[in-house]
Write a structure and sequence with these properties.
By secondary structure, the protein is mainly α. It is 47% helix and 0% strand.
């Protein structure tokens, strides 16, 4: 009897010993997979640690916001916008200097034609006027782009060239018959920011 009990116990133990273990649930299976397939990440020492902040961003002002600003600098940016050129510091600096050469600073919006542009203004020799400063900016950009004689200026604006390069292109062009004295009558002092009357826009 004792022998039979021992054999039965042994058979019972053997049955549990050869039975497969229970299948783990999904979380257990994931843990087993991770343990069997460890992953590592190596970062080059040349990569600097970041402070976690994101890069800044900016937006280019459009026609309405530039017109609302109403200054000579806003108009210079409007010319760049109309021509598809960068509104860079170099380009705007040249543009406001050029406007000063053409119409002065205190009434740069004279006849709504800051550049004394004859194209589309109805006046010979650049003495015509436009219905608004917005139109004047568009016509100034169009004139520069349509006339091959101004291609060097256009290229300089497109490249945001240093101010002296763009200004030399202006002096060499036929925009002004005087060629601004080949630069001898061109002023590079800072141009004050002056607001035009709202009616000019």
């Amino acid at each position: 009897m004792a022998i039979a009990a021992s054999i039965g116990a042994f058979a019972l133990i053997a049955t549990f010993a050869i039975a497969p273990p229970a299948t783990p649930d999904a979380a257990g299976q994931l843990a087993l997979y991770i343990a069997a397939h460890p992953q590592t990440l190596s970062v080059s020492e040349r990569v600097s640690l970041q402070d976690g902040t994101r890069d800044g961003y900016s937006a280019t002002a459009g026609v309405e916001s530039l017109a609302a600003t109403g200054t000579n600098y806003a108009w210079a940016k409007l010319v760049m916008l109309s021509g598809g050129w960068p509104q860079s510091e170099a380009n705007i600096t040249v543009m406001v200097r050029w406007m000063r050469q053409e119409n002065g600073t205190d009434d740069w919006w004279n006849r709504n034609n800051p550049m004394n542009n004859g194209y589309g203004s109805g006046g010979g020799g650049g003495l015509g006027s436009y219905d608004s400063l917005v139109t004047a900016a568009q016509k100034a950009a169009e004139n520069l782009q349509r006339n091959p004689s101004f291609s060097t200026i256009v290229s300089a604006f497109a490249a945001s060239a240093p101010t002296n390069i763009t200004e030399q292109a202006i002096w060499a062009s036929p925009w002004a018959s005087s060629h601004y004295g080949n630069g001898s009558r061109w002023h590079t002092s800072p141009v004050p920011e002056i607001t035009a009357p709202v009616s000019a826009w």
